[in-house]
Each structure stands twice: as structure tokens, then as C-alpha cells.
Amino acid sequence: MPLTFYWYPKCGTCRNAKKWLDEHHLSYKEIHIVENPPSRAELQDIYEKSSLELKKFFNTSGQKYRELGIKDKISTASEDELLDLLASDGMLIKRPLLTDGERVTVGFKEEEYEKMWL
């Protein structure tokens, strides 16, 4: 499956990740995470394949995260509640989100991309 790259063009980290993908000649489908966020089912699938904690999928430095007080809810909310919350607004999802349908990276760290995608 080709890579799917969920990103927000105004995000510097996303732009750095896109530049890295381009420099390494990796083909990907680009999806604007705010205009076309992954559905709840897609998020659940991505989360289950990632082996990451669900809280790692939240954009903790985002304004929406702070406005909604998610920091206080995250430890007591159920997995279903957290997935519903993530699916409710693309700005809540940590970006970029990159997947090939089996593997997943959240955020951008060059060494992690090298290990996972090269």
C-alpha cells in the first residue's frame, strides 16, 4: 500500500517531514488533516497497528487540546471516548501522521523516519 501522509501545511514539522519524504523519493498520498481528517474507524485501525499509546496521537501543544482541557480527561477517558475525541477535530491529532496501512509514525523525527520508511 502506498504511504498516506496526513499533514497540516502551516505546520513547520509537517513541512520538514514532507521535505524529507521528497528528498528520499518516497511516493505518498497527501491528505490535509484538518480538511479531511481520518475517520474514527481509520484512526482506530491506525492506532491498533501503531503499538503506540493512544495519548501519543494527541496534539498536546495545540490550542484545541488546551481549550478542551483534554490533559485532565486523558487519563480517565476510555479508549472509545479518546478515539471519538480525536475523530471530532483534525487539529487534535498529532501530525504528521504517516502510514502504509501496516506501519505508523506520529510526528516527525528524522531517525524514526529513516528506520521505518527507508
In short:
By secondary structure, the protein is α+β, with helices and mostly antiparallel strands. The chain is built from six helices and four strands.
Write a structural description.
By secondary structure, the chain is an alpha+beta fold. It is globular. The protein has helices spanning 12-23, 40-50, 63-67, 70-73, 79-88, 110-117, and strands at residues 3-7, 28-32, 97-99, 104-106. It is built from six helices and four strands, in the order βαβααααββα. Helices cover 42% and strands 14% of the residues. The chain has a four-stranded mixed sheet, with helices on both faces.
Supply Rg: 14 Å
The biggest beta sheet reads:
4 strands, mixed
User: How are the strands of the biggest sheet laid out side by side?
Assistant: 2-1-3-4
Count of separate DSSP helical elements: 6
> So what's the overall shape?
globular
Q: Count all strands and give the number.
A: 4
pLDDT < 50 stretches = none
- H/E element order: EHEHHHHEEH
Distance between the termini: 15 Å
